[in-house]
Amino acid sequence: MTSFTADAALAAELVELRRRLHGHPEVGLHLPRTQAALLEAIDGLGLEITTGRELTSITAVLRGGRPGPVVLLRSDMDGLPVTEATGLPFASVEGTMHACGHDLHMAGLVGAARMLAARRDELPGTVVFMFQPGEEGFAGARYMIDEGVLEAAGEAPVAAYAIHVDCVTPYGTAVTRPGPIMASASAMRVRVEGTGGHAAYPQNAIDPVPVAAEIVLAVQAFAARRIPAIDPAVISVTRLASDSAASNVLAASVELEANIRTLSPAALDLIRSELPRLVTAIGEAHGCTMTVEFIDSYPVTVNDPTETGRVFEVLDARYGDRAVRLPEPGMASEDFAYVLERVPGALVFLGVQADGATAPMHSPGAMFDDSLLGDHAALLAELAWTRLAESAAE
Question: Which domains, from first to last, does the chain contain?
Fold first, then answer.
C-alpha cells in the first residue's frame, strides 16, 4: 500500500489557505471569491479544469501516467449565514461563517491534488477533484452531476470518497461505517388560514393560532407513534409565525415549517403520505383552509459496503485504534448522498476538535483545529491511489 505524508511546507501552505478561506465565507451556489482562491491554489498542476454554468463549481481532472480507472474526490465550498463568535484572529467578520468545516475540506482537497500531481507519472489512472458549492441546503452536488462531473474524465468513476471534519469527534480519530451513515432531509410547509378578528370576540372568528398549536403537538408526536423505534426518524417544527401585528388582533393565518430526517425509504414514504393528511384534517376540522407542501431534499447518505471495507484497510494502517467503526448513523444530512447514489464510495469523518472547544458545528462558536490538514490531504490522496492501484493490479 502506497502511503502519503504531507511535508511541513505543504502543511503550512494548506493552513494558510484554510485561514484565508475562513475569513471570507460565501453562502449558496454562487461563491466567486472562493472559486477564484481555489483556482489560484491549483494553478500550475496540469489539471483539466472546468467551471460550472449554474454554480461556481470547479471540476479538475488529473490524468496519471499509467492506465487505470477513475476515482472521484469531493470537497464542498460554502459557508453558513452565521455570525462568527470564536474570537480567532482569522475569524470572519462578514456575517457568514465556515461553521461546518468546509474551509478545511477545500484546503484538504487542494493538498490531495498537489500530492497526487507530484506523482503523476506513477499514478495508475485518473482522479477527478470535485469542488462543489451549495452543500448547505442548495443541492450543489446534484447541480454538478447534471452538469457532467461524473463524466468529466470520459468514463464513470469506479469509486468516490469525501472527508468531513468534525469538531466534537476526538482529535485525530477517523470514523465511518458501511451502509447508511447520514439521514435524508425533507421539509413540510404548512399554512393555516382562518378569518382574523377582534381578540375580545374569538367566537366571531376562526382563530388559526390554537389550531396551529394543535398541529405542532401532532407533528412532534407523529414519529414516536407511527414509525417503528428501530427505524429512526426525527421530525422537528422549526418555524412558527402568525400574521397578527397587534396583541388585540386575531391572526388571519399562521405558517409553520417542519424539518424531517429519516434513514429508510419506508419511513420517508409513510411520513410523506400520512403527515400532510393528518395536518390537513386537523385544520379543516376547525374550519381552517389548509395549504400543505411536502419538499423532498437530500437522500440518505449510504456508504457502499465494499468501498467502506477498502477505506478501513487504509484507515487501520494510518490510524490504528483511532480508526473507529461508527455503530449507528447520524441524523444530519449530506448532499454527497447524490454522488453515492450513482457511484460506490464512502464518506469519512475526521476528528479535528480544537483544544478546549465544546461548541457544535453550525454554531457561532464552532472551532476546528487545522493542524491535521496535512494528514487530511494525505488521506484523500491515499484513498484515491490505493483504489486505482487495486484496479490496475486486477
Answer: 8-182+301-393 (3.40.630.10), 184-296 (3.30.70.360)
